[in-house]
Amino acid sequence: MTTPVTIAVDVMGGDRGPEVVLRGALQALEADPQLHVVLVGPAEHVEPFAAAHDRARAQVATEVIEMGEHPAGAVRAKKDSSIVVGCRLVKEGAVAGFFSAGSTGACLAAATLVVGRVKGVKRPALGQILPAYARPTMLIDVGANADCKPEYLVQFAQMGVAYMEALMGVARPRVGLLNIGSEDTKGDAFAQEAYGLLSKQVPQFAGNCEGGNLMAGDFDVVVTDGFTGNVCLKTIEGTAKTLFKYVKDGLMSTALSKVGALLVKGSLGELKEKLSPDTYGGTPLLGVKGAVIVGHGSSNETAVKNGILVAAETARADVAGIIASLVGAGAAKASANKTADATSDHIDNAAQKGEASASDAQ
To answer: Can you tell me whether residue 299 is helix, strand or coil?
Structure first.
């Protein structure tokens, strides 16, 4: 039996207005009988909906963080904004997770500053599920950390593994490093150092993933820095949209092709749904103490519904707890390796000094 779970929903998040978010929340409630939602936003939007639905309650928030505002500054200044209030509910334990299609930067800042990082996590990361051909693939990070150190990618891999095992049911996920070639010597100094760390500290690491193989599904988790990951994600989304425009233009070009379009309409609809980011609802922010899902600003009600459902399943699976265990074990292993390397260096230095002394004595 599914465990009851409560998720906070930012009613003011997204470009399409509160009504779209509320319709998405209603669809989520209908899809999951054990789901409860706390709607966060102005009273005129959240209170009527909560009054009409048994498994919904209102949490009034009087401020809204706009898309153009400085994320961290807005989070600090607008303590009663829907994003900050939603994250505060997670921190206080009033809800198990939070969904917002509002400012991504503000969601990241509030989740980090208010909800807090899992102990041992150096940088939370956004992990996007991609509809790769063989099976879904998580690309992490896709925008939370533009500047990274190689050791961050080790934790990204550990967090991605935790999510794919707990939520996607993947046994022993294969981890890849996004790079310009498959050989371990490929890439810049950053990529080569990251490769070495992943090889030592992530048992599931299976080597480099070239850009052309990302959508093939050869890997279950692909790690990269947030700048590269965000450019890669938007390129994939833009290419998919352009491809469908070309297909539509081709099918509508002649009377005969229009007849063919009727024959393949159902299959094309299924393909479009599979490739649509709305299907996955939002991007999990991994590494914070709770289930925080960040949706697209353009999210429709389907995307909102799916984002809320993903938040519920992430909370039920206790992904944050699993990450805490994995990262803790990984940190201990890294510390042990560092100590072992230091000891080895010390022994080598001592041996060299001993050889030198023996040579001098002769």
So the answer is: coil
**Tokens coding 106:** 């503000």
Distance between CA atoms of residues 341 and 321, nearest Å: 30
Q: How many CA atoms lie within 13 A of 236 on its CB side?
A: 23
Q: What is the pLDDT at residue 334?
A: 55
Please give the pLDDT value at position 294: 95
pTM above 0.70, yes or no: yes
Cα–Cα distance, 2 to 223 (Å, whole number): 32
Closest by CA position to 106, among listed 292, 237, 231, 290: 292
* 224/211 Cα distance (integer angstroms): 11
Strands 137-140 and 125-130: antiparallel
Helices (H), the chain: 18-31, 43-52, 71-77, 82-92, 104-110, 150-166, 189-201, 226-251, 255-275, 301-316, 319-361
Chain segment 225-280, per-residue pLDDT in tens: 999 999 999 999 888 888 888 888 888 888 888 888 788 888 777 777 776 667 77
